[in-house]
Specification:
single chain; 8% strand; 2 domains
């Protein structure tokens, strides 16, 4: 993956907070440009509220605003006209592909890779990657940036604070085995 590629982040990679934080921290390093839409924001917020009724929409709105403020040019707009012409196994995913096309993304980062068959993406020169694959590519591109980013993410966890072991266990639970292995190998830097 070339430096400064553009990645459209699907909603499913934005609502585990540990993963969202790591991806956004890495985006601030310049290793890639993070993109999403207002619809993707709504999807991840809805998912979090369904799973965590103890949280208020206002809390998540604050997270949304911070995401938009810290990722330059992150919001993709004017993609809706493309949606009807796109064919995917689940028509509810067409907005993601439309946003990737309009946002000139090189890759869609999603846990749901089967929802984006490569033959549907090839005409637009877009790849689909599981977040573990995407993060491992970043690890190979700049191991230092990934370990420093993970350390900064862990340091922000205050309520409760996370030890290195707790942070690594949290990453492992996110279905990121290769990323977890990489960070575990560099645990003294995390």
């Amino acid at each position: 993956m070339p430096t400064a590629s553009t990645a459209l982040l699907d909603a499913c990679v934005l609502h585990p907070s540990l993963l969202r934080d790591l991806l956004l921290q890495l985006a601030t390093t310049g290793l890639f440009r993070a993109r999403w839409t207002e619809d993707i924001h709504e999807e991840w917020i809805k998912s979090v509220l369904e799973r965590r009724p103890d949280l208020a929409r206002a809390q998540l709105q604050r997270t949304r605003e911070l995401m938009d403020a810290h990722a330059p040019d992150c919001l993709v707009t004017e993609y809706e006209a493309l949606i009807p012409s796109l064919v995917l196994p689940d028509s509810k995913d067409r907005h993601v592909l439309a946003a990737a096309i309009r946002g000139r993304a090189d890759v869609i980062v999603t846990f749901n890779t089967d929802d984006f068959p490569q033959d549907a993406l090839d005409p637009y020169d877009i790849d689909v990657q599981h977040p573990d694959e995407f993060l491992v590519r970043l690890c190979n591109l700049s191991p230092a940036a990934v370990t420093v980013s993970a350390r900064e993410c862990r340091a922000r966890l205050k309520k409760p604070p996370f030890s290195v072991d707790e942070y690594l266990a949290g990453i492992a639970k996110l279905r990121l085995p290769e990323t977890s292995a990489f960070l575990s190998e560099h645990r003294t830097l995390v």
